[in-house]
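Incident log, entry 3
Record: Gliding motility-associated ABC transporter substrate-binding protein GldG (328 residues)
Problem: checksum mismatch between cached and fresh output.
Input:
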Amino acid sequence: AIDILIVADPKEPFTEKDKFFIDQYIMQGGKVIWLIDPVQVSLDSLSTGHLTMAFPRDLNLNDQLFRYGVRLNYELLQDVECARLRVNTAPPGMPPQFTLHPWYYSPLLVPSDNHPLSRNLNRVFTEFVSSIDTISGNPQVQKEVILSTSPYARRVKSPSTVSLQNIDNPPARELFNQSFIPVGVILEGTFTSVFRNRMLETLGIPVSEVIPESRPTKMVVIADGGLITNQVDYSSNPPRIQELGFDRVSRQTFGNKAFLLNAVFYLNDDSGIMQLRNRTQKMRLLDKVRLREEKPFWQWLNVLLPLVLAGLWGIIYNTIRKRRYARS
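Fresh output:
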């Protein structure tokens, strides 16, 4: 028996028969972690030509996930709270000169503190993620966002171009005006089969074998297939697999591994391990937007405040000194 099924970054469309097997596994109380990329981006084209296209990826799962209670959107998310990218900015023919730039397509996602699965976790390192909408209609299914963007994000509809050439001319900050866009959702309850009331003779499946409604169960849906992917360091011989969530530019390890382990433990009803894991310390990141906007204020405050305090102390000292000598 399969305790938890992980659908990890599929590339090809699912057949109706594949969907049926997954659906009926869920109807029997099976738990699933869906890690889906609704938009495909060619990283090879981006690394060689500095420009690529982002296209919708049809995996033939939309109707199934919609029936369970979510919709994955064909768009990419950009976020001010993002990882950085090392880019060669030297003119052609000159020695390489690498500088760091914000890579808005690599959001550092925020785990929700409102659910035990995602509570007390570090940011999650991602790249080319999409958004999720929850669908109302089945009161027997509870939905909760467990992973989202920062307060400074925006949506880019697909198809669209993804270019490294615009990294020096980023979008205006006023465009990053959407807060906490959902990327990960947990669904808990009794689900309705997507194959309910459907004729399945073409699949060779008798209608009598279809379980129309599930036992109480759970599933996690993430609009990013790469969240589960380890990066590989090809500069070493042999190539070395990096720890899950490791960012080679900042040399930091983010909360991807802990998030996925929490998802597995929570779906597996291992409450004891969940309580222990929720005691971990979070890595608090500075609010980069406020830092940038309030930087002049704090700079002037640090310069002027000591001078003002020194001046006040001098005035008070001289006043006290004059009074003392006047009395004497």
